[in-house]
Amino acid sequence: MDFIKQNILFPVATIMALILFFSCESNFKEVQKINFSDFVPSTDAEKINLKYTDSGRITGILLSPKMLDFSSVAFPFTEFPKGIDVTLYDKKGKRTFIKSNYAVSYKQTSIIDLQGKVKITSDNGQVLETEQLYFDQKNEWFFTERKFKFTDKKGASNGQGIDFSKDFKVINSQRIVGEIESTD
User: Fold this and answer.
1) How big is the CA angle at 43 (ends 79 and 102), to the nearest 5 degrees?
2) pLDDT above 60: residue 109
3) Distance, CA of 76 to CA of 48 (rounded, Å)
4) Between 173 and 52, where is the model more confident?
5) Number of Cβ atoms within 10 Å of the Cβ of 46
6) Phi, psi (5° rounding) for residue 178?
7) Backbone angles phi, psi at 119, to 5 degrees
8) Counting CB atoms within 10 angstroms of each CB, which of 77, 114, 130, 150 has the fewest?
9) Are 176 and 154 in contact (CB under 8 A)?
10) Residue 168 to residue 154: CA distance in whole angstroms
11) Residue 17: Cβ within 10 Å count
12) pLDDT band per the 50, 70, 90 thresholds, residue 86
């Protein structure tokens, strides 16, 4: 009987232990896969043409070659990896044009991050160019700490750090250099 325990039961017990080990490993990997979620957009759209309205009046038009909507993540956002072309309309019909190579709109904060050759042009010829600019949609306010170039009918200026209203009526700039024609 001692012979049977040593020569037959030990290898059988070893084989059973190996089978259990490998079957548990397989199940463990399946459980890991269940808890792993890919960071993928809930919506992927091409050739976007969105019109924003308020009381039947168009307030903005957004054009983009590609939009990725990540609305199912903890901090939802919409990404425009190939850039945007936006036209904003004020109540009097005056337009502000915005272009950038890349943009991200954060839903919870209503902040839009514009990046890469950002250019804003108003109907009356004012132009602002920078590499990154934020737009606060709630307050209709633009701001950046990056270098910028501002041009209007009075001249051109460069600086670092600027914030302004969407219609360019209020402009606050920091560290500015340039030539501007005075009305005095």
Assistant:
1) 15
2) yes
3) 19
4) 52
5) 9
6) 160, 180
7) -140, 125
8) 77
9) no
10) 14
11) 10
12) very high
**Partner residues linked to 143 by β-bridges:** 134, 163
Tell me which residue has tokens 């990540």: 70
CA 105 vs CA 70, 81, 83, 99, 110: distances in Å = 10, 11, 12, 14, 7
Q: Shortest CA distance to 92 belongs to which of 152, 167, 153? A: 167
Task: State the chain's maximal CA–CA distance in angstroms.
Answer: 116
Token representation of residue 135: 């737009």
How many other C-beta atoms can be found within 10 angstroms of the C-beta atom of residue 80? 24
What gap in Å lies between CA 82 and CA 20, rounded to an integer? 51
Q: What is the pLDDT of residues 151-177, one digit of tens each?
A: 888 888 888 988 888 777 787 877 766
The structure's pTM equals 0.71
Contact yes or no for 96/123 (Cβ under 8 A): yes
In DSSP terms, 47 is beta-bridged to none
Residue given tokens 């560290």 in the structure block: 175
